[in-house]
Amino acid sequence: MSKNKGTAITKTLFLHSGRSGTQVCATTFKMAVWFVFACVVCMFSWWFYFFGLNDYTHSSNIVVMVNTPDSFREYREIVPSENNLIFYEEWDAAYDFMKMSDFMHEHSAGITVWFPEDFDDTLKGGSDAQILTYYRSDTLDYMGLRDDFTDNYLEGYRTYLADRFNLENTGSTYSIVRDDIPTNEGMSRGELFARAMGRNFVPILLFIVLLYAAMSSGTEAISGQKERGTFSRILLTPVSRKDLVRAFTNGVFISSLIPSVVVIIITLLIPAYRHLSGIIPLLLLTVSLALFIAALTVMISVMNDTVTSAQTAFLPIFFILVTVAVTCINGDDEVSEFNYFIPVYGHFYGLGDSVNGEPHTLASIVCSVITALIAFGIIEISSRLLMSEKFTVLTGSSSEEEMMREPSKFERIADTVAGLADVVLYPLMVLSIFQLLAMIPVAVAYMRDPAYSDFIASLAGISGVPAVIEQTMTILGIFMNDPRFLALMSIAYILIIITYRLRAKSAAGIGLTGKNFGKFYVGGIALGIVMMSLVFALLFITGKVTVNGIDIPAESSLTFIFSLLMWIPQGAAEEVMFRGFMIPRIKKIFTRHGSIIAIILSSLLFSAFHCFNGGFSFVALLNIFLLAVLFALIYEKTGSIVITCAAHTMWNMFQGNIYGLSVSGNASVPALISTNYTGSAFGPEGTLEATVVIVIALAVFAALNLRRRHPSPKES
């Protein structure tokens, strides 16, 4: 009877899994979906990396010299390289891996040596220079060629330069930086891409599917029964608590294993992954990982009294395991053989290699056995935890509703944390993903620009967070003057708004109400223009801004137009995230003083959102917070973010494209008015002049609302 009861519990949990209805699990699912989507796009960007690589054979004695200086040509005439056939090419971008690969493809070479421009003049002037070398990492032959060429022939060239340019007296020298172009001999571009997808994307997808499926059903297992008051009845059945834990674990295990097997079947239908040798290790690793995650989820369910608190406790584990999986994405040569035997690491590497038909069978068996033993240990711990817990059995109840109880203080805190996690993490996740997708094509194209080489070289000497932020703003400034990036960012912001619209299921759910839309938007345009114009006027009066004239260079006209258009969805997207989406949900979390907490918290998060921009200061923090409070009050008063969308757009547009000033610490964009600005590095938003204007706007808003609440006798 005990066995039959345990089987019944397993079936019940399996058939009714994932019905918790809480937001935590749904949020995790959305984040997981976006994460997978980002991984897919990033994987497809690797296609550009392998562009130009095809089935061809390289010679082990051919070298491509890029930007060869005159001194090297002279040295080669004096000391011929008998073991190497050398070809000369010209290319400015040092870190353009695709072009370096093209050179090797064209000449069937094994290595490429890149010299900076004016190499000879740099050494003559007493400065240091770098020579970059690239070699194909398919076999050790190319590494040996690179080492032989650099350690012997180029070292002789170093001696020649020392004598010719008298380097010992000038103090200049050159260093050789060694890099590699990871490829695989005999593989086409499609095969290389499929290999990268199989090794990195498929394991991450399996991890996320297992984790989400286990979380959906496992947190419902025992904590859901406790929450509904039905777990006491289960304890009255003739089933030991150890059998209960095992039965629940089996249900969670089956619930998570089935979608994972579906993913595996779909993967094996792809021709590139039809490797019979990897099927058994692939299934073995998947089953052991599913068992481990199921046992872990049930233990968390035992330790909590509500589904929400259990899901909240499981969230850190979810993200930790996914993060561990992400850290496993690296080259084959960086993976230690020992890692294949360690749970989680061994699962990721083993799954990827098995998909590609290169299984580590022994390591997979050992890793699976260790993982299974850990899972059984967790089940034993869960059983003992359940035995030590005290339960009150209510008798004579006519319905399950009578057994419900008020949530404890801990449960209320857990619910609050879960809600806030949804409010805070979801906007950051959506924004970071879409911005990343917009940057990938531009970054790939930028690799072919010589400025990219200069930027990479500038990173060598930086240290500390401020320097890193400064360099990040530098590269972002370059992108902000690229029409392609501005167009892609406009699309990204539109997609962000659509994403929130789909989640809210209505435009009103994110504050974009249709009532008085045109009137509100025109009013917002006027508000944004007036406020930024007042800030500019105060900066002009105080001497922080001088006007040079009105002019837009012809070469910047396209960038100017795309920049103007970009501000429209950008302002609307941020208003949707930090006002239309965030404020109503915070008000639901905090029933007492919900509006005040929502305004303050959303404004603080909006300020924190800008804290990594260049030149950020306390004044900038204060101004952005006050501006966010103003926009939040307008939203609370009107029930719509239409006014603030327009005001936000005009604030940024006039700040950047009209008055030629930095927008929130970002690099300047082409502007109608040419100005010289000597104020805060964060731009006008980091000045006291902006503080004065925002405070005046807040005072006017308060006065208008006070007047409406207490009209004069004449108005009455």
Question: Summary?
Answer:
The protein is mainly alpha-helical.
Please characterize this protein's 3D structure.
The chain has 716 residues and is mainly α. The protein is built from 25 helices and seven strands. The strands form two sheets. It has a five-stranded mixed beta sheet with strand order 2-1-3-4-5, with helices on both faces. The chain has a two-stranded antiparallel ribbon with strand order 6-7. Helix 3 links the parallel strand 1 and strand 2. Helix 16 runs antiparallel to helix 21. About 8% of the residues have low confidence.
List the helices and strands and how they pair.
Elements: H1 2-15, H2 23-49, E1 62-66, H3 70-78, E2 85-89, H4 97-107, E3 111-114, H5 119-124, E4 129-136, H6 140-165, H7 167-170, E5 174-181, H8 189-221, H9 223-228, H10 231-235, H11 241-269, H12 279-302, H13 307-327, H14 345-355, H15 361-388, H16 409-446, H17 450-458, H18 465-480, H19 483-504, H20 517-541, E6 545-550, H21 557-589, H22 594-609, H23 618-638, H24 642-658, E7 673-677, H25 688-709
Parallel strand pairs: 1-2, 1-3, 4-5
Antiparallel strand pairs: 3-4, 6-7
Helix pairs in contact: 1-11, 2-8, 2-13, 2-16, 8-11, 8-12, 8-13, 8-14, 11-12, 11-15, 12-14, 12-15, 13-16, 16-19, 16-21, 19-21, 20-24, 20-25, 21-22, 21-24, 22-23, 23-25
Task: List the keywords.
716 residues; mainly alpha; two-stranded antiparallel sheet
Helix count, per DSSP?
A: 25
Integer-rounded radius of gyration: 31 Å
Beta-strand percentage?
A: 5-15%
Considering DSSP H and I runs of 4 or more, what fraction of the residues is helical? 55-70%
Whole-number mean pLDDT? 75
Largest sheet data: 5 strands, mixed
How many individual β-strands?
7
Unreliable runs, pLDDT <50, ≥5 residues? 14-29, 42-58, 179-186, 391-405
| Oligomer description | single chain
Q: State the end-to-end CA separation.
A: 79 Å
Give the overall form. flat
SS content category: mainly alpha
